[in-house]
Amino acid sequence: MTGYIIVAASAAVALLVAALAVQGKRHAREIERVRREGEEDARRTAEIIAEANGIKEKTGTGDHACDMHVMAGWMHERARGGK
Question: Which parts of the chain have pLDDT scores under 50?
């Protein structure tokens, strides 16, 4: 009788260990996904900033209001999917 209890307890422990291993792998994949998304967001942000700086240099007419209007138009076009 004691042998059956030991076997059942061992099986339960083995199932718990397996479940924890699966959960650990799932958690590691989620962390990796979030890290990749963060890197992609940082890359996109850097591209947008570089493009904005290029636009700023192209529109440097000395008339601040005109420059802002042109830059806003270009950025609006980019936001709608144009380049």
Answer: none
